[in-house]
Specification:
Blueprint lengths: L5 H15 L11 H14 L6 H17 L3 H11 L3 H8 L7 H19 L2 H12 L16 H7 L8 H11 L2 H5 L2 E5 L2 E4 L15 H15 L7 E5 L5 H12 L4 E6 L7 H8 L5 E6 L9 H11 L9 E7 L23 H9 L7 E5 L4 H14 L6 H14 L5 H27 L1
Parallel strand pairs: 1-4, 3-6, 3-7, 4-5, 5-6
Antiparallel strand pairs: 1-2
Helix pairs in contact: 1-2, 2-3, 2-7, 3-7, 5-9, 16-17, 16-18
Length: 441
């Protein structure tokens, strides 16, 4: 350990004890940045003669912060806002006056500790590393200018963070905590919700055609956001018509209003009741999205979906709906041999069973039909996408190439139009580069 700077050594010990004494907000440091911060403190405290361990630990800390794009101070407060602990979970559902006094006292205690850790920023750590490793200059300090959320600025400017408990409780009550506060979209895999960092932010105004279907889905989603009864929706129709893109575009449109999307594969629909229990009582509104929905006979997933659509003894949360897409109007695959015949071994009420299968689609309160695009609709989509991509070629040439593309590829659809425009734009850029190179040589 370094002995020539006993005051720094004492401060390192102090910060380590502070971090170890957190009661509720341990999750603030249970991440790559937090772990590298604690490891760096340990290596500074017990630095070897040449300080190599200390320098390596500082490098890991620097890199972990750089990946987040935030300074230590911003990162620390952001983790407080995302924290998932007994106080934050209760604060989502209850008023501040109803929270247990012991939890409020523990939160005040932790916030004061975290305020002291806030002061142990990258500049301070860099100076300590310089001393511990006997460097002539201090290591580079990670710093990144970024726009700060108003609430982050509010906490940062408080003299005593312990006074922010009531404001934080109100923040959790409005915005939620944990994964639902951090991410807009999720995937359900192997019994867990996984946040999606880079979601496909489709803009709703880029989706051309099917205007009444778009308006109906938007209105139903706004019912959900307003706390009114929203309907489960089946988007049925031809492939490539933009059904999935329309659902995904709602996140870009309403994510700032606490809308969240959870995508679940058909093979995991049996977990739907488990997912719904996690959504109960949180402030966000959820679309459970099932793409390309269909069932085989005696599929357990069919039974799970039926319970969600129809309900059971447990009331359905008001903050969720199911949006499903399918290319099939009848979602349960049926064969001619399935139809009842008057044989002794057949089910007595066979027609009832078959009708239950055929009527499953009707359990969605709203069915939106997407017919195959006709030629005018297809060309309208192409022109809209070409304009957005800033493709400047004569209209008749654009139409001719678009129709040729549809004939040779997947037929007329929104997906085909997007593929054509992507190809055309790349081709035009490449051709321009080749011409420029020829001129330069």
């Amino acid at each position: 350990m370094f002995t020539t700077h006993t005051s720094s050594y004492a401060k390192v010990q102090f910060f380590q004890r502070q971090a170890a004494s957190l009661l509720l907000y341990q999750s603030v440091l249970e991440n790559d940045v937090g772990r590298s911060f604690l490891h760096l403190l340990q290596t500074i405290r017990y630095a070897d003669a040449d300080g190599r361990d200390c320098l390596q630990a500082y490098g890991l800390y620097f890199q972990s912060l750089a990946i987040t794009g935030q300074n230590w101070e911003q990162f620390l407060i952001q983790q407080i806002l995302w924290a998932d602990n007994p106080l934050t979970k209760l604060a989502q559902k209850q008023e501040f006056s109803q929270l247990p006094p012991a939890l409020v006292a523990a939160a005040r205690h932790d916030l004061q500790i975290l305020q002291s850790l806030y002061e142990c920023n990258s500049a301070v750590l860099s100076e300590w590393v310089q001393n511990a490793a006997h460097l002539p200059v201090s290591p580079v300090v990670w710093y990144q200018e970024s726009k700060q959320e108003n609430f982050i600025t509010f906490i940062a400017n408080l003299d005593n963070w312990g006074d922010a408990v009531e404001n934080l409780a109100a923040y959790y009550h409005k915005h939620g905590t944990g994964l639902f506060a951090k991410y807009l979209a999720f995937m359900w895999q192997k019994g867990k919700l996984l946040g999606i960092d880079d979601i496909d932010l489709v803009k709703i105004d880029t989706l051309v055609g099917y205007e009444w279907q778009k308006q109906a889905l938007v209105k139903n989603t706004e019912f959900l956001l307003a706390g009114e009864k929203a309907l489960h929706v089946l988007l049925y129709g031809s492939r490539g018509s933009g059904k999935s893109s329309l659902v995904k575009s709602l996140i870009n449109q309403y994510g700032h209003k606490q809308l969240r999307l959870i995508e679940i594969a058909k093979s995991e629909l049996r977990d739907l009741p488990q997912i719904i229990q996690q959504l109960r009582g949180v402030p966000q509104k959820f679309i459970i999205f099932v793409d390309d929905l269909s069932f085989e006979e005696d599929d357990d997933n069919f039974k799970a979906m039926k319970v969600v659509l129809e309900g059971n003894l447990t009331a359905k949360p008001d903050n969720m709906v199911v949006y499903a897409t399918s290319n099939r109007r009848h979602l349960i695959r049926e064969y001619f041999e399935d139809r009842p015949t008057p044989k002794d071994h057949e089910e007595v009420h066979g027609w009832d069973t078959m009708q239950e299968k055929l009527s499953f689609s009707d359990r969605f309160g709203l069915t939106l039909t997407f017919a195959a695009a006709d030629q005018p609709t297809y060309l309208q989509i192409v022109k809209h996408l070409a304009n957005a991509a800033e493709i400047n070629i004569p209209s008749d040439e654009l139409e001719y190439q678009a129709l040729q593309w549809a004939t040779r590829h997947n037929g007329r659809s929104g997906r085909t139009a997007r593929q054509f425009i992507d190809f055309l734009k790349a081709d035009l850029v490449l051709s321009k580069n080749v011409r420029n190179n020829d001129i330069n040589h």
